[in-house]
Amino acid sequence: MKFRNILAGMLCAVMLLTVTMTQAFAASPINQDGYYKGIRLAGKIKVVDYNADIKVKIVSSFPDLRVKAVEHFPDDIGEWQFVDYGEDFTIQYVDSFPDIKIQFVEHWPGVA
Predict the structure, then answer these.
(1) Is residue 10 assigned to a domain?
(2) With bands split at pLDDT 50, 70 and 90, how would you rate the model's confidence at 27?
(3) Is residue 93 within 8 Å of 80, Cβ to Cβ?
(4) In CA terms, which of 4, 56, 78, 85 is 20 to 30 Å from 102?
(5) pLDDT exceeds cutoff 60 at 92
(6) 73's torsion region: left (phi>0), alpha (psi -120 to 50) or beta?
(7) pLDDT of residue 13
(8) Which residues contact 56 (CB under 8 A, 6 or more apart)?
(9) 36: three-class secondary structure by DSSP
(10) What's the pTM value of the predicted model, to 2 decimals?
(11) Residue 53 lies in a domain
């Protein structure tokens, strides 16, 4: 009987830890509508060296946003047209402490 109680307690602890870790990894700075701090993550983007609206890290897995570089009509979330002027927002590429993590894709851009 005592062994059964210990086993049940351990099982509950593992389940609680699993739920907690899943929620921690699932948390994204981007909401489901594709906004980061009020910035819609679609449109014309200018890359800058400092004072960017968003600091971005390029990753190959587990991105916050999948980005498709387009030449025209960047209307959908994750479609970015890179420009030198007339930008909707600016980004800065960083290796550490990013605001969001992106992965460049050819198909199906959007919130990961």
Answers:
(1) no
(2) confident
(3) no
(4) 85
(5) yes
(6) left
(7) 62
(8) 91, 92, 93, 94, 98, 99, 100, 101, 102
(9) strand
(10) 0.77
(11) yes
Please state the domain count of the chain. 1
pLDDT confidence of residue 95: 98
The domain of 84 spans: 29-111
Beta bridge partners, 68, equal 79
Strands 100-104 and 89-93: unpaired
Report the chain's mean pLDDT, rounded to a whole number: 88
Q: Is residue 2 included in any domain, yes or no?
A: no
**Burial class of 78 by CB neighbour count within 10 A (0 to 12, 13 to 18, 19+):** buried
Query: Which structure tokens are listed for 100?
Result: 């969001």
Residue 14's pLDDT is 62
Pick the closest to residue 79 from 26, 29, 43, 37 (CA basis). Answer: 43
Cα–Cα dist 91/63, whole Å: 16
Residue pair 80/110 in contact (Cβ under 8 Å)? The answer is no
pLDDT in tens, 40-65: 999 999 999 999 999 999 999 999 99
